[in-house]
Structures are given as C-alpha cells and as structure tokens.
Amino acid sequence: MIDLHCHLLPNIDDGSCSWEESLDMVRMASQDGIKGVVTTPHWIEGTNWQPETQTVRDMVAEMNRRVEDAGIDFKVYPGMEVGITADLAGLIERDRILTLAEGDYLLIEVPFHSLPLGMAKIISELCSIGTSAVLAHPERNRELQQKPKKILEYVKAGALVQVTAGSLSGEFGQSARRCAFEFAKLGALDFVSTDAHSVRYRKPIVSEGLKALEKAVGADKVDSVIDASYRIVSLIRQP
Ligand SMILES: [Fe+2]
C-alpha cells in the first residue's frame, strides 16, 4: 500500500510537530505494511496554510534522507491537500500547488459540513487540463452521509474517491463508516488512505480499515485500492 494522504512533514500544518515525530510516523506506517507515502500538507487559500511548492519538495528530500539514514525501506513523495477554490487548474499551471507525487491527480479537501457549490464544475475543469480530482474523505461530509448516492454526480464529472482508513474501522463514528461502505457498494471508492497527523492520534495505520473493507465488500476491493495507490506514484506493486 502507498498512503496518498498523510500530514507527515513537520511544522507545516496541523500534522507532525518535529522531524523525530515524522520519522516515528514512517516507522509506524512501515510496520503496518505501508511502503511509501505521498505527504499532503494543507494548502488553503486565504490562510497561513499556503506552503510554497518548492518548500514541500525540499522538505520531502530532507525526509527521504532521514528515512534512508535510519535504514527504513520507505519512500516519501510530494503532494498537497488543497482546499476548494476557483481556478485550481491555474494554480497547478503556475506551480502554486502540488498534485499527488507531481502526477495527474490532485487531492482536494471535501469540507465536513455542506458541499461547496460548483464542485462538479471544478472537477470537470481539472479534467480538461488532464488532472483528475481525488476527493479527500467525502464520507465525513454531513450532506453525503445523508445522501451517499450524490457522490456519483462527482464521479460522473471525473472525480476519484479517497476514503480514510479510520472511517472504515469506525474511528469517525457510524455515519462516516456507513457512508464509506455505501460508496464502496456504489463503486465509488478508489483509494484508502490514513490522513495521519501524528503517532498519538489519527495514526499512519491502514490495516484495520482494509480489514473492515474486506469484511464488508470482499478481498477484491482491497486489492484494487492497493493497486490503485501504486499507480499514483507510477510504481508496480511487488508481490
Ligand atoms: Fe488531511
């Protein structure tokens, strides 16, 4: 498994608080069978969380050096979790925001309460420049919890769906859990990620969520989300 949503870099958002904690998160992820992570610090227009793309790239290089020095077989890739705003395509083109592993997928944050107006249009605009929107944890959105089928409107517009492992294992309550399984049954669940923030809470653990997914919809679905995670970083999954 490659984790596509994780707040691994220190002191850049509400994730890790030090390089030591980041390394502990890598150790914990590695012990859970995760082979690599796309680190996705928040980027939200109009807030202090708008890191420069080059800062993230430099920090990822530093993190990889530290991982290697510690003798851990693990790779970190750059990315961001981007708050929904107008002209995401322009922000990508001007190198203001980072796609996942600098490829063709952009992780966009779905708010927890109401759904932003025009989200389907934003998804289609991204498609027109060859970038697929990956919706971060839509199962935690109140409106989608009430009407899970609404996710299909976004899938039709070109979005892929990332569910958080903790939602599948029940860490975020029954509504999020039910909604995540409903997405899986609708064929609208492409990735499972940790959205980890530390080693103490919201941990870099995916196995419990995958076990719950297997129990609910079968092992084939687990295989498909693992393979999909490798495709994002252009790696072939090793047996
Ligand atoms: Fe996140």
Account of the 3D structure:
By secondary structure, the protein is α/β, with parallel strands linked by helices. The protein is built from 10 helices and 9 strands. It has helices at residues 19-31, 53-69, 88-93, 119-128, 142-146, 151-157, 165-168, 174-185, 207-217, 219-232; strands at 2-6, 36-39, 42-43, 75-78, 81-83, 105-109, 132-136, 160-164, 191-193. It has a 6-stranded parallel beta sheet. Strands 1-2-4 form a 3-stranded parallel beta sheet. The chain starts with a strand and ends in a 7-residue tail after the last helix. The model has no long low-confidence stretch (mean pLDDT 97). The structure holds fe (ii) ion (FE2).
Characteristics of this structure?
239 residues, alpha/beta, TIM Barrel, three-stranded parallel β-sheet, 9 strands, globular, binds fe (ii) ion
Beta strand count:
9
Strand order of the largest sheet: 3-5-6-7-8-9
Please tell me the total number of domains: 1
The hetero molecules present are: fe (ii) ion
Task: Give the low-confidence spans.
Answer: none
Q: What's the overall geometry?
A: globular
* N-to-C series of helices and strands: EHEEHEEHEHEHHEHHEHH
Instruction: Identify the CATH architecture.
Output: Alpha-Beta Barrel
CATH topology: TIM Barrel
The whole-angstrom Rg is: 17 Å
Sum this structure up briefly.
Helix content is 41%, strand content 15%. The protein is α/β, with parallel strands linked by helices and 239 residues long.
Q: Any chance you could write out the topology, listing elements then pairs?
A:
Blueprint: E1 2-6, H1 19-31, E2 36-39, E3 42-43, H2 53-69, E4 75-78, E5 81-83, H3 88-93, E6 105-109, H4 119-128, E7 132-136, H5 142-146, H6 151-157, E8 160-164, H7 165-168, H8 174-185, E9 191-193, H9 207-217, H10 219-232
Bound molecules: fe (ii) ion.
The site of fe (ii) ion (FE2) has 5 residues, from loops.
